[in-house]
Amino acid sequence: MKFVPQPNQQVTPDVKIGEGVRIFGFVNLYGCEIGDESKIGTFVEIQKGSKIGRRCKISSHTFICEGVTIEDEVFVGHGVMFTNDLSPRATNEDGSRNGDPLNLVIIGGIEDAFPSLVRRGWSPTEVTWKGSVMRIMRSAMSRERYPYAPISNLYLFGRPQDIALQKARDNIHQRNHLRLWRSPMLYHGKPVWVGQVSRDIGSRLTIHSPTFTTHKIDPDVDEAARALMEDLVYSQGLRAIGLVKGVGATPKSAPRENLTTDPYYTAGMRSVLLFDSTPTSLTQIEVLPWQPFERGFLKPAIEIEGGE
Question: Helix H segments across the chain?
Fold first, then answer.
């Protein structure tokens, strides 16, 4: 049945609307595509070139800008505003300088994702205060481990990281650290976290930190994300893995710099880790067919437009 707009609906003729779609009043849709059985709430604008998957719910007062693709069965909460920036990055507080690249997406929450991280040796970090700074200095001089050492703030969605974790290695100079920001989106009812994981390979003095010291990151930031994925397959909580497009490729011959001028290079993808509270063995872990894996880590997945 052909969709006929109501007087309080602005829907241009070039909008492709699937079967069973429900569209409420005061919407503005043009040049976009809406999948079967999706719901579009009031005061929603969807611009040209955007694609909404099957069985999605787009809540009221949401703005979906040109070129955004929302996969199947995604819930978008009220008042969400999308950006078509193809390379969003964590920044300093005023947004004037870019930090480490966002190379990770975690799908899950308190009941599945975080227990899996704890089982694999990840610990929450302390906040930065006088006592933690003094302990960092003592650990640096004695080359001891500091499992809960604080990490500096980066900003995304207008706020510092919601969760900071680290996995200590031989000493204070070497660790893996992880920042996570909860996004406004859900995937199959699970919270979606955007994150940044990197491997610290040393410490150095810098004028770009309020403490005048910083950890130096391994420039191969993809390796840190792959290592996290490979480690968490043994957590028994990882149900699926995949890749999505991220910050864009940066070759080793022309690296970018993070907030403290450390160089890094990347293939530009983000690793996706989907968790579940039901124990999952190695042979049961699924591969999400969103972007093909490279470097022989897994056989290439089939890229399915609008796939789940």
Answer: 113-119, 130-142, 221-232
